[in-house]
Amino acid sequence: MSAETYPEKQVCITGVGQSEVGRPSSRSALQLTLDACLAAIADAGLTPADIDGLTTYPGPSQEGGGISPVGATETMLGLGLEPTWVGASTEGHAHMGAIISAIQAIASGLCRHVLVFRTVAQASARAKVHHAAVLGGGDKSTPARGANAWTLPFNALSPANMYALYAQAYFAKYGATSEQLGAIAVNSRKMAALNPNAIYRKPITIEDYLASRVISSPLRLYDCDTHIDGSTAILLSRRDVAKDLARPPIEIEAMGMALGGLGFGLHRGDFTTLAADRAGAMMWSRTDLKPADVDVAQIYDGFSILTLIWLESLGLCGRGEAAAFVEGGTRIGLDGVLPMNTSGGQLSAGRFHGFGHTYEACLQLWGRAGERQVRDAQVCAVSNGGYGYGALLLKQTA
After folding, report:
1. Distance between CA atoms of 67 and 132, rounded to whole angstroms?
2. Which pLDDT does position 125 carry in this prediction?
3. How many angstroms from the chain centroid is the CA of residue 67?
């Protein structure tokens, strides 16, 4: 595939940064944002004056609950930036929408260096009002919209209630078991023990998982990601200028995207697949690489059942085979055939809505992941989203 064929082949990742992660943090959401952004800029050997593009997901949210407390404008002012391009709506392919929009902006010539960040303060919000992080913030006086209109009136206040239906369907169709699903949580905690910035670092056993309380059958406590305060920043640069920066640029080999209807209560199929299938198919159609070439995977784990579905959507497992693949954790461990969620993922490191996965992918490909480094990692698949779907295939510079 030539660099002229697809926009992602004209763009590289040149720096990453992550703030401290707290539950909650003593620093404000804006302070955490600036910490992550300045770290990413310095990581690439640049200064704020070099940054001419800026975007975030999803932008400052009025929903409350700390889901998106910081927008591009205040970040621009805090960093002293003068961007020629600022991303607008990133609804489309959900969490990865900001990254994909930044790729398109650079490839079209609007800018050279785009800073993409994601900030959350859900732990602080929940510390003030315990139910702040549930759907709708627990406020029944405000009309429910989208998918919430189908769930909130029946006191189904968490996406766990919806994704539990997918887990039940997957179990019924493929004979998956709780022990198999639990292997994802156990592996995540094992990885998080090696990540100094992870929230939960104490290892758990499969027995601990099975003894944890059921949230929405069959999903248990350890199947659900965790609220945090923190910020992650990714710096994207035009390929022809990336080679002159501080780090060997990480190539964006391919990208895929899709938007489903779950955000509006629309469910298609038999509850064992999602529109993530389309994102995976699109990604593989844009590269000569194959699933067998992937050395390490950072797979979205807002709920553990999503990880199984994503593994299959990306072709890393056959249909209905993901549960058996993760069973016991050997295949997805550091020395396994497909090391997975090496930071601890959202289940143990904290919910960055997928941005933590991209950050970790870069650390792995740069060989900077410390004790959790995967040996000879050269190609990494990254996915995120449970409503909209995005996937990236990243590789070391040749």
Report:
1. 10
2. 86
3. 14
Reported pTM: 0.95
Q: How many CB atoms lie within 10 A of CB 154?
A: 8
pLDDT per position as a tens digit, 60-86: 876 668 888 999 999 999 999 999 999
- CA–CA gap between residue 309 and residue 339 (Å, rounded): 17
CA distance 323 to 101: 33
The whole-number pLDDT of residue 139 equals 55
Nearest-10 crossing angle of helices 304-313, 276-285: 40
The three-state DSSP-derived secondary structure of the chain is: CCCCCCHHHHEEEEEEEECCCECCCCCCHHHHHHHHHHHHHHHCCCCHHHCCEEEECCCCCCCCCCCCCCCHHHHHHHHCCCCCEECCCCCCCHHHHHHHHHHHHHHCCCCCEEEEEEEEEHHHHHHHCHHHHCHHHHCCCCCCCCCHHHHHHHCCCCHHHHHHHHHHHHHHHHCCCHHHHHHHHHHHHHHHCCCCCCCCCCCCCHHHHHHCCEEECCEEHHHECCCCEEEEEEEEEEHHHHCCCCCCCEEEEEEEEEECCHHHCCCCCCCCCCCHHHHHHHHHHCCCCCHHHCCEEECCCCEHHHHHHHHHHCCCCCCCCHHHHHCCCCCCCCCCCCCECCCCHHHHCCCCCCHHHHHHHHHHHHCCCHHHCCCCCCEEEEEECCCEEEEEEEECCC
Rounded (10°) angle between helices 178-192 and 304-313: 100
- Round the CA-based radius of gyration of the chain to a whole number and report it: 20
Residues 33 and 117 sit within 8 Å (Cβ to Cβ): yes
Nearest alpha-carbon partner for 233 in 16, 53, 35: 16
Q: Amino acid identity of 349? A: A
The bridge status of strand 296-298 relative to strand 219-220 is unpaired
Closest by alpha carbon to 225, among 321, 116, 306, 320?
Answer: 306
Instruction: Read off the tokens for 258.
Output: 């899709």
Other CB atoms within 10 A of residue 333 CB: 17
**Distance (Å, whole) CA 83 – CA 50:** 9
Residue ranges of the chain whose pLDDT lies below 50: none
- Look-up: residue for tokens 């920043």? 233
Structure tokens at 38: 């300045």
